[in-house]
């Protein structure tokens, strides 16, 4: 591995992280609260480490695949560790394990929290907590790539952090990596600004609007309120949030194509059509169950609450407007299924991703058709009206199987070390691996993760990272051959 180049990139990553604390520091100054010095000291320390690593490794070399994976995995771990310093210095989260868990949850856009009373935390720290969503939603390593020297292998970092589902789509933004990242971040920040303005104009405070926008477009779920979006009891806020959760779940290549007027590309996009179909089915069936069971008095209320929760879980956002564990068992069953899906590849969401389900379903249909009806035929599987290579189909099936295996194995491990019920154990792994946040059982929408032991929290934090890096990049480091020269 090129250690000097890795240190150079890590240095830039730390500079980006330390500089990002400027806004929380300004927020602390505005509210005149006790978190100013912890934020300031933490920022200065991270910037010092970052500039030192960057300055003493200024000679740039090409990064290879192993370097990119190493930066992706250990970059997230290092930044999450250092980002928890303000909470530890302030005393809001005195435990390093808890602070690391909270920050890893923020950067990976999981939204799981160990805080039992969020609203007592000072505004500056709350803003920093939500800002980790803003940075992690698009992948903060993609932001680092913008500042990399030309030709230093930013594409390899991007591939290490991005979804295998993006391989399936076969889409590209622009030829140059830096241009790609600028377009990505421009679209992403534009959606955040628009979401903030709509919430603010609807009567939400500017601070809350910013924090909720950061958690919505990034499909993350941190809220400055204990009751999440449900704190406001506003249909307007619910529907605005639903719209931007939906947009956060759309692959960003479609926004770029829309800006160029390429509406045909949007029309033929297989994953987008499946995304709409999944949402219509699950939102419709859950809303119908709530209405038929008289959970809510009117059909419109049933649609509002049912659609919000389905959208929140399918896009792995994790916001809530109601305690869905009080809903009928049939509605909870569909919500549980939704947790296994995820939205589009190339979006801010996590999860298995719809494109994998599209490929697997098309493969199953083609195989059955070939065996029973057309044994001599060659049936191709197509996405966006283009044939899919067999190696890509294998990748999709493998990715699905590994996810299910990790859920089962992780759930069993949690049951052994935590002595908890299987519903909570399985739901905790699904929540962390799919980066959803809330789940079922003891981690339901009105609960948190504070009761887990330190071992359990570290295990769940690792699952968050594995899920955010889409499995393979985080697991390949356990191969002995990864650490061999050559």
From TrEMBL:
Pfam families per record: TrkH (PF02386)
Binding site for K(+): 109-110, 316-317, 435
Family membership: Belongs to the TrkH potassium transport family.
Keywords of the record: Cell inner membrane, Cell membrane, Ion transport, Membrane, Metal-binding, Potassium, Potassium transport, Transmembrane, Transmembrane helix, Transport
Protein name, entry field: TrkH family potassium uptake protein
Upper lineage: Bacteria, Pseudomonadati, Thermodesulfobacteriota, Desulfobulbia, Desulfobulbales
Record localization: Cell inner membrane
MF annotations from Gene Ontology: metal ion binding; potassium:chloride symporter activity
Main location as per UniProt: membrane
Segments traversing the membrane: 7-31, 37-56, 68-89, 132-149, 182-201, 236-256, 272-291, 333-360, 392-417, 459-479
Top-level taxon of origin: Bacteria
A GO-annotated cellular component: plasma membrane
InterPro entries recorded: Cat_transpt (IPR003445), TrkH (IPR004772)
Protein topology in the membrane: Multi-pass membrane protein
């Amino acid at each position: 591995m090129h250690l000097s180049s890795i240190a150079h990139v890590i240095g830039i990553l730390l500079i980006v992280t330390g500089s990002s604390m400027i806004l929380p520091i300004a927020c602390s100054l505005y509210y005149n609260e006790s978190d100013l010095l912890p934020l300031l000291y933490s920022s200065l320390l991270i910037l010092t480490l970052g500039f030192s690593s960057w300055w003493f490794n200024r000679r740039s070399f090409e990064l290879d695949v192993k370097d990119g994976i190493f930066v992706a995995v250990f970059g997230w771990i290092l930044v999450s560790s250092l980002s928890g310093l303000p909470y530890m210095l302030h005393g809001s989260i005195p435990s390093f394990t808890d602070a690391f868990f909270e920050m890893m949850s923020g950067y990976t856009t999981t939204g799981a929290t160990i805080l039992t009373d969020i609203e007592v935390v000072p505004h500056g720290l709350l803003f920093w907590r939500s800002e980790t969503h803003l940075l992690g939603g698009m992948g903060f390593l993609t932001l680092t790539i913008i500042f990399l020297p030309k030709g230093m292998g930013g594409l390899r970092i991007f591939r290490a952090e991005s979804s295998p589902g993006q391989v399936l789509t076969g889409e590209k933004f622009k030829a140059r990596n830096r241009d790609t990242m600028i377009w990505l971040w421009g679209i992403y920040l534009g959606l955040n600004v628009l979401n903030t303005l709509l919430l603010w104009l609807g009567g939400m405070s500017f601070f809350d609007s910013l924090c909720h926008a950061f958690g919505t477009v990034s499909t993350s779920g941190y809220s400055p309120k204990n009751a999440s979006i449900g704190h406001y009891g506003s249909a307007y806020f619910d529907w605005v949030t639903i719209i931007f959760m939906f947009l956060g779940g759309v692959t960003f290549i479609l926004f770029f194509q829309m800006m160029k007027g390429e509406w045909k590309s949007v029309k033929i996009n297989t994953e987008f059509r499946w995304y709409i179909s999944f949402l219509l089915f699950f939102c419709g069936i859950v809303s119908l169950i709530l209405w038929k069971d008289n959970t809510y008095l009117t059909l419109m209320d049933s649609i509002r609450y049912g659609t919000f929760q389905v959208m929140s879980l399918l896009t792995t956002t994790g916001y809530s407007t109601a305690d869905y564990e009080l809903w009928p068992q049939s509605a909870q069953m569909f919500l549980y299924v939704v947790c296994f899906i995820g939205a589009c590849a190339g979006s801010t969401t996590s999860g298995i991703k719809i494109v994998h389900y599209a490929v697997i379903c098309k493969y199953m249909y083609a195989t059955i058709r070939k065996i029973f009806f057309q044994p001599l035929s060659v049936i191709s599987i197509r996405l966006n009206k283009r044939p899919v290579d067999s190696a890509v189909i294998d990748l999709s099936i493998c990715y699905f199987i590994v996810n299910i295996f990790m859920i089962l194995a992780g759930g069993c491990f949690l049951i052994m070390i935590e002595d908890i019920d299987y519903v909570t154990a399985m739901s905790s792994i699904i929540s962390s691996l799919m980066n959803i946040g809330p789940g079922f059982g003891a981690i339901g929408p009105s609960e948190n993760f504070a009761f887990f032991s330190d071992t359990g929290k570290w295990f769940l934090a690792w699952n968050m990272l594995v899920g955010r890096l889409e499995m393979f990049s985080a697991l390949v480091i356990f191969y002995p051959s990864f650490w061999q020269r050559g």
